[in-house]
Amino acid sequence: MIMDSTDKKLLELLQKDAKMTTKALALTLNLSVTAVYERIKKLEREGIITKYVALLNRNTIQKGFVVFCHIKLIQHAKEYLTTFEREVGKLTEVLECFHVSGDYDYILKICVKDMEAYREFMVTKLTTLQHIGSTHSTFMIGEVKNSTAFVL
Amino acid sequence: MIMDSTDKKLLELLQKDAKMTTKALALTLNLSVTAVYERIKKLEREGIITKYVALLNRNTIQKGFVVFCHIKLIQHAKEYLTTFEREVGKLTEVLECFHVSGDYDYILKICVKDMEAYREFMVTKLTTLQHIGSTHSTFMIGEVKNSTAFVL
DNA sequence: ATTATTTTATTATTTAATTAGAATAAAAAT
DNA sequence: ATTTTTATTCTAATTAAATAATAAAATAAT
């Protein structure tokens, strides 16, 4: 889809605050309410905007302990990959899982309460997954930037 | 704050779809509209819900090339860390940056159009930052799971 | 230049968010 | 045990926003 600078500005605004009213958006974009409304509907139809979500503060819900876990599989047969991916997708502590190139096969982002909860997770869940070769845990000690908003 | 199971269910619903009307929420939670409304306002006041945002599909906006970049600084004086963090925060291609324990000091998630754009980013932006010791790029080849929603 | 297509604006309608006030229930104090 | 306070819920009314319908303007295609 061909996006003009108004569409981009609109997306940047909605990525920051999805609760902005079309009226407020119209005002900052110098358009009418309907014009904004139609543009948003189009961006949704085209699959550019995928969803609207509430973001929570990890620390207030006992999920402040963040770990990046690098995982290597024992083998790389397609069946091994898909089995692992299906199983890891079910683990609620794993918020993100990316298949990557390089020294490791997967990078996981895991959010739990504390180190004890992480130990429990490792022992009872992660390391019981099939086909896992090795894991390497890296602990977050500070959050410099954590944005869901792309700059267009 | 003490959250009951209704608060948790409410948060899970809003994390999935922030556009659900209070009426629809009230229906699924077996509460009145006002009760739901008041609970949401409280969760916002308490800083548990931090914001509502639109999520975009990377691939439709020329940001489908995702790289995890592991960075080591040359030294770890506080001034070096803060300078680096301030500068990296300004880079629009860097969506996330975490200070971590272990072999590297920082893990960055970078989203750009393609490898050429990444090369350009590395040469003109990332590697020009002060105090950088080494970088190690890991390329995303598949997205298994990428959620912003905590399971409570 | 003329027609077709898309985008925008105005107005009307529907739907949802918010507020007000009363009722209920839980917690703290006497 | 009983009153008082506090918090949470409900129903109903109000305010505000989203959506739809229609008309006008702008853009692209012939």
TrEMBL record, chains A, B:
One of its GO terms (cellular component) is cytosol. Residues 3-66 form the HTH asnC-type domain. InterPro entries: ArsR-like_HTH, AsnC-type_HTH_dom, Dimeric_a/b-barrel, Tscrpt_reg_AsnC-like, Tscrpt_reg_AsnC/Lrp_C, Tscrpt_reg_HTH_AsnC-type_CS, WH-like_DNA-bd_sf, WH_DNA-bd_sf. CDD domains: HTH_ARSR (cd00090). GO terms for molecular function: sequence-specific DNA binding. SMART domains: HTH_ASNC. GO terms for biological process: regulation of DNA-templated transcription; response to amino acid. Keywords: DNA-binding, Transcription, Transcription regulation. This is AsnC family transcriptional regulator. It comes from Flavobacterium aciduliphilum. The lineage of its organism: Bacteria, Pseudomonadati, Bacteroidota, Flavobacteriia, Flavobacteriales.
